[in-house]
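Posting for a labmate who doesn't have an account.
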Amino acid sequence: MDTPVLQLKNIHKSFGGVTAIQDFSLDLKAGEVVALVGDNGAGKSTLIKIISGVHGPTSGEILLDGAPASFPDASVARERGIEVVYQDLALADQQPVYMNLFLGREPVKGPLRLIDRGRMIAETEKLVKELDVRIPSAKVTIRDLSGGQRQGVAIARATHWARKLVLLDEPTAALGVAETARVESTIQALKARNLAILIISHSLDQVFRLSDRICVLRRGQQIGVRKTSDTNKNEIVAMITGVSE
């Protein structure tokens, strides 16, 4: 068996006297999409923040490629190959696409260490073509793109830097049908690059289209993990709500 990219073992997270995550365990494998589902307040975003180094777990263990790992802050998680696409995308609206792709990690050249814009543009054009992110040019400003195009750029940036794992928090929440389909196609392209993918989504239709496994959280507790092909929406809804028909 291949070693999972990321293993969470008995993760517990408390904020003061409030328990946000209780005894959570999950393996994430390369080339696999796992969907994390649950109602608002179930602990999904807290879990994403633990994996990405925003919060440390109160107890439990994180393993990366089978070795114990800790991410004291988000920059350490990024250095270890973990990237996040948050709902707000964290894009610089006034900057062109290629600058956003390299934000904070711009390559330089020559003794004066000038920003290598030519390399940035070329790498951006290559990546958006590979992922089929349909934008007019790598030089277009973010503010001039549609919601779906912006989401595509955010996912492309995560893809460019992620070596292990991409975390997607509601990647199509504010998009229409056509743009959602385009972003889902981009996520499928991530899977083809053999990255591990964890996606939070309120859309069960989307979850069943994209995921290989589904993990259900309810009030901070892990209710269960199901292979997508072995379950159905009724079972997942019952697990989310705690109410069976």
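Reply:
Got it, the structure tokens are right above this. The helical segments are 44-51, 74-79, 97-101, 117-130, 147-161, 177-192, 204-210, 233-241.
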